[in-house]
Amino acid sequence: MSNLNQEIERANKLLSQNQFALAFPSALNRDYLLSVPQERRGKLKFSLWVGLAVMAMCLFLDASVGQDQLYRGLAVRTGVTLPLHLAGLLALQRAATLGAQAAAVIIPMTSGLAVTTWLATVATESGELYMLSVGMMIVAINLVVPLRPKEALVLTGAGSGAVAAIELMLSYEPNLFLLIFVLAISFLSFFVSIWSEGERRRLYLLHLLERLRSRQLANANAQLRVLSHRDTLTGLANRRLWDKEFEIAAREAATKGSVLGVLIVDIDRFKSINDHFGHAAGDACLARVGRILEDYLLESAGLVARIGGDELAAFFTDRSEEEIERRASQTRSAISKARLGPGGATITVSIGVAAEIVSEPQMRKELFERADRGLYEAKQAGRDTVSIGRIELQSEVGEPIEDPEVNKG
Description:
This protein is of the alpha+beta class. It is built from 13 helices and seven strands. Helix 3 (37-65) packs antiparallel against helix 6 (127-144) and helix 6 runs parallel beside helix 8 (176-229).
């Protein structure tokens, strides 16, 4: 939970930064870059198709210069630019890294800029038109293609160099105002692309925060569910969970007509421990007894719980009364040998056991009462023992009588 809180705090701090291009720490930057390849691949494919459309439109510019220029443009664009764009589309399909994706786009687009620059040197009288077209290409690339800042800078620098080369190679006096205008809009679009990348990063942070807070809420709800069903002192199930699970087990046993068993554990002379050594010592004893119960019974029991005070209980499905009694005796012996009391004093427990075939869910109450009677009988027998709760029948005048079958040995 602390790591989750730290991640949320880090994301909030980054969002509070008023930066033009949002910078991520290296670990977060790696996660961000790993999260965008698929989305970015689709946008890069679209930009290559846009590049092919621009190449086709540039043929109209070539045609406006003359027929010879059109033939030159058609030859070089279909012979160089078109194959590189198609190769870029194929490369994007296999590109696994952001660098490979960028290369698949930058190479064909740079070739388009180079071809346009070469055609401008051939038709110097129309060089300014080609210079404007290169500038427009740079603007389109920066605004449409989702490149990282370094990649966008490479393309903008290459395009600006092409613009400057065209202007310097013109046979007449260079138009510096036009050159400055084209360079200005080129670099302005570059800064817009950086701002767009920053906004994409902010959006990623917002989505990350949403996911982190959802996880935080889910963890908190899960913790609340655990706490609502767990006894904070012993770590065992509490009475609420016991009642719920015991009822479910009784319904299942009634459906199958199978045996349901219960044992109830009570620490002997627990009040004396609290009175002589304090409640903290009593709580420690109770927690230790709970751990031993869990160790010895949890594997075979459906649930081990603290049902109130110093009383602990467990229920069993498909276990005979004899087997439950045997496990109860092993647990009782382990507790007395473990010397769990204050200063290593011996602690003993009394255990009541009951089990029978369940025909209806309500029989769980009778079963629990039988185990409780067994616990009472264990206390009456001198404590530190296990007793099976006897079935009590009602006489005609309402007096409880003992089941004769139970008294046979």
